[in-house]
Design goal:
single chain; alpha/beta; Stationary-phase Survival Protein Sure Homolog, Chain: A; 9-stranded mixed β-sheet; two-stranded antiparallel sheet; 6 helices; 24% helix
């Protein structure tokens, strides 16, 4: 990758003012030209939703040096990528990076993640896309500078392998609370279910409501997956795909006799 400069679209789901995005941007600038198109407000866990019945208001945003950072979009992460590729960028990017997310996106959480959804949207458009997330295990400020440096190192190594156009990767960086980094592992997505909990409360009018608790437990994770490797202190890299067809089942069903 030395000497090769790439055009990078940077987005996220935590919002254009999120510290993770602001930390990742200067790191990615070491690899090439970076333009930001990101949600105006936090859009965590919105998945791959898009905006259809309300306008997508767009506003230019400057960085701390009063230079143009990019565009803030009053919409979802997938909206941001659509607008960037169809309307806002003068030419297509070579790479889309989504992050740096505050919190890991491993296991089944990949399906809920706006961070990953933005990367998937980029892959729809045949642009190599990488979602980057940083795990936290305690409610305290995250070291985004450390995470951004590590994310850039992983992104650079992925690009050095010259992946096929439209490739899609999910990167998770373990919390420093896990201890010293053990390295980088390429592992599959964990598909074991999480156990979710809700805090039941009653408002002053006697109505019941629930708060989703932040601690998601995976009591029986599959070994050698993103969830287990992340817990062991590894940076995880998982190649993803958005084709949900079960090819073996489809092949069996082709032999079925259908009747009306």
């Amino acid at each position: 990758m030395k000497g090769v400069r790439v055009r990078i679209l940077l987005t996220n789901d935590d919002g254009i003012y999120a510290p993770g995005l602001r930390a990742l941007r200067p790191e990615l600038c070491k690899l090439g030209e970076v333009i930001v198109v990101a949600p105006a407000t936090e859009q965590s866990a919105v998945g791959h939703s898009v905006t259809l019945t309300t306008p997508l208001v767009v506003q230019e945003v400057s960085d701390e040096n009063r230079q143009i950072l990019g565009w803030a979009v009053e919409g979802r992460p997938a909206d941001c990528v659509k607008l960037a590729l169809r309307e806002l960028l003068p030419e297509p990017p070579d790479l889309i990076v989504s992050g740096l997310n505050a919190g890991s996106n491993a296991g089944i959480n990949v399906l809920y993640s706006g961070t990953v959804a933005a990367a998937i949207e980029g892959a729809f458009f045949r642009v190599t896309s990488i979602a980057c997330s940083q795990e936290y295990t305690k409610l305290k400020p995250l070291d985004f500078q450390r995470g951004a440096d590590l994310a850039r190192r992983v992104v650079e190594q992925i690009l050095a392998r010259k992946p096929k156009t439209g490739s899609l990767f999910n990167v998770n960086i373990p919390s420093p609370e896990r201890g010293p980094l053990r390295g980088i592992r390429t592992v599959p997505q964990n598909v074991a279910p999480y156990v979710e909990a809700f805090d039941r409360r009653t408002d002053p009018r006697g109505r019941v409501y629930f708060w989703s608790k932040p601690d998601l437990l995976c009591p029986d994770p599959h070994p050698d997956t993103d969830v287990t490797a992340l817990a062991e202190g590894w940076i995880t890299v998982t190649p993803l795909q958005f084709d949900l067809t079960q090819a073996p089942v489809l092949e069996q069903m082709n032999d079925w006799q259908w009747h009306l």
